[in-house]
């Protein structure tokens, strides 16, 4: 599991690693440059015109080493030196000296920045790194504005986009990367949705620093990757029967909003639930029976909305419950949710309108517990805890809520954050912009409920559900792009198992 550590700890981390391994800081910089180039070769052609923009610190040193290595591999490279020679770091200076005589390196004055025209296919930003602690100004600001305005180029940031602080929210301008190749671990600010336009696609390049060096700086934040998920999946015997794969109940729906609970139910089946049942208003029984014959359906007393009384007998037979999609926020629905939370004490996924009811009636929150998983999107979350200034504050409040109520809170979005009552937070690495479509959250509800029902335990169920939901979205959008809809994600769930190599 990759740690997400503070930018302030990086210098000490590098120092400890260098001392332990008996290498120089320049050798570590070469490792980083080589890791970047290994990734770059898989993405860009040698006939692409590559401009590498380097500052005078260690990020600039990375860029100079990258330029040298790419030039030796036959790439059409030109290096631009930004920011003058003031306070050039030792490793940056050394990499300047190591540049081949035939590799063009141009020092950029303020006048050059204002008037030069760049004929490039790829722009590599290595101007400023994780040490930025104030808004950009001077040559760096002017160069970033110029590069951001270039048409028809691919923009790649080395470690972190210039201007972006590593642990705080951006003030002012920053380089707008299409891809950010960060070294060894993702920087905290790369997880913020406010920074999405600057980070682009995030790729983490391994430069050989082991977890034992990072653990001493742990802030209990982790980056969830494939290797962390595969080992959490359960293996079932060939003699397993449908009961072994879990009996789940999906509760929700209202007149005109039956699709949400239907998608949650189908997602639970595609994730592997042996038996799935829906509890819906009576208006939804025929809809669900006709559209999803694999499920059982029973109804509450109301025709249009979930309401009291409902059938309590037999709830103990369900291994997990997902509640909320499409249920509405009527007074009857509020009474229903309170009664249900008081009655069913097994693991639950609480989503959508159920979260909105919890936000409106704080008293119901006392019934939340360690086997409960809340899955709000940002707006639903802020109804729970209040308006937040930025995503950093949202993450802080998510952890506070999880600790205070003893539940798991899944804050959905790019790099979905999972907060646990023990103080840990996990950030997801899968998913893409094409999943921003109605119903995608209902699919996640069904998937996590399914894993809970299969006996994964709360932590493994949530981590596997969130990661595999994003992976299914990636698979579904390969040939559909922005045409991807929630049911496409459901159809891709089986392929996500194949991709992970999970039987």
From TrEMBL:
Top-rank taxon, per record: Bacteria
Entry EC number(s): 4.2.1.136, 5.1.99.6
Binding site for (6S)-NADPHX: 58-62, 129-135, 159, 260, 326, 377, 442
Keyword Nucleotide-binding: yes
YjeF N-terminal domain: residues covered: 10-215
Cofactor note (record): Binds 1 potassium ion per subunit.
Binding site for K(+): 59, 125, 162
Domain YjeF C-terminal intervals: 225-500
Protein keywords: ATP-binding, Isomerase, Lyase, Metal-binding, Multifunctional enzyme, NAD, NADP, Nucleotide-binding, Potassium
Role description: Catalyzes the epimerization of the S- and R-forms of NAD(P)HX, a damaged form of NAD(P)H that is a result of enzymatic or heat-dependent hydration. This is a prerequisite for the S-specific NAD(P)H-hydrate dehydratase to allow the repair of both epimers of NAD(P)HX. Catalyzes the dehydration of the S-form of NAD(P)HX at the expense of ADP, which is converted to AMP. Together with NAD(P)HX epimerase, which catalyzes the epimerization of the S- and R-forms, the enzyme allows the repair of both epimers of NAD(P)HX, a damaged form of NAD(P)H that is a result of enzymatic or heat-dependent hydration.
Protein name: Bifunctional NAD(P)H-hydrate repair enzyme
């Amino acid at each position: 599991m990759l740690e997400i550590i503070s930018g302030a700890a990086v210098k000490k981390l590098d120092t400890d690693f260098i001392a332990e391994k008996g290498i120089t800081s320049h050798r570590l910089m070469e490792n980083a440059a080589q890791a970047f180039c290994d990734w770059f070769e898989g993405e860009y052609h040698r006939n692409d015109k590559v401009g590498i923009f380097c500052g005078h610190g260690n990020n600039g040193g990375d860029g100079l080493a990258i330029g040298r290595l790419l030039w030796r591999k036959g790439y059409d490279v030109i290096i631009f030196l930004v920011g003058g020679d003031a306070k050039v770091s030792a490793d940056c200076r050394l990499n300047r000296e190591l540049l081949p005589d035939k590799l063009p390196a141009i020092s950029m004055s303020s006048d050059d920045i204002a008037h030069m025209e760049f004929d490039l296919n790829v722009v590599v930003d290595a101007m400023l790194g994780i040490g930025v602690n104030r808004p950009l100004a001077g040559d760096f600001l002017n160069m970033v504005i110029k590069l951001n305005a270039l048409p028809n180029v691919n923009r790649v940031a080395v470690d972190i986009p210039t201007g972006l602080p590593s642990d705080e929210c951006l003030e002012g301008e920053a380089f707008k990367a299409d891809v950010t190749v960060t070294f060894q671990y993702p920087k905290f600010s790369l997880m913020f949705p406010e920074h999405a336009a600057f980070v682009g696609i995030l790729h983490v390049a391994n430069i050989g620093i082991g977890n034992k060096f990072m653990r001493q700086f742990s802030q209990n934040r982790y980056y969830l990757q494939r290797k962390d998920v595969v080992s959490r999946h359960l293996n079932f015997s060939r003699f397993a029967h449908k009961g072994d794969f879990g009996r789940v109940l999906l509760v929700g729906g209202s007149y005109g909003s039956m699709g949400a609970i239907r998608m949650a139910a189908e997602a639970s089946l595609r994730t592997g639930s042996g038996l799935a049942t829906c509890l819906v208003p009576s208006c939804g029984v025929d809809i669900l029976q006709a559209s999803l014959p694999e499920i059982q359906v029973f109804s509450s007393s109301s025709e249009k909305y979930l309401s009291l009384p409902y059938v309590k007998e037999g709830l103990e037979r369900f291994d997990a419950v997902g509640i909320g999609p499409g249920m509405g926020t009527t007074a009857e629905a509020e009474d229903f949710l309170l009664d249900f939370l008081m009655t069913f004490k097994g693991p639950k996924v609480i989503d959508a309108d159920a979260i909105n009811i919890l936000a409106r009636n704080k008293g119901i929150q006392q019934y939340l517990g360690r086997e409960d998983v809340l899955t709000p999107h940002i707006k639903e979350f802020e109804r729970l805890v209040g308006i937040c200034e930025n995503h950093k504050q949202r993450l802080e409040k998510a952890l506070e809520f999880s600790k205070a109520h003893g539940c798991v809170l899944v804050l959905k979005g790019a790099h979905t954050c999972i907060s646990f009552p023990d103080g840990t937070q996990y950030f997801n690495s899968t998913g893409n912009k094409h999943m921003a479509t109605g119903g995608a959250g209902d699919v996640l509800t069904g998937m996590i409920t399914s894993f809970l029902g299969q006996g994964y335990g709360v932590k493994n169920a949530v981590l596997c559900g969130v990661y595999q939901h994003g992976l299914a979205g990636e698979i579904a959008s390969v040939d559909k792009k922005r045409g991807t809809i929630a049911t496409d994600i459901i159809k891709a769930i089986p392929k996500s198992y194949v991709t992970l190599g999970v039987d």
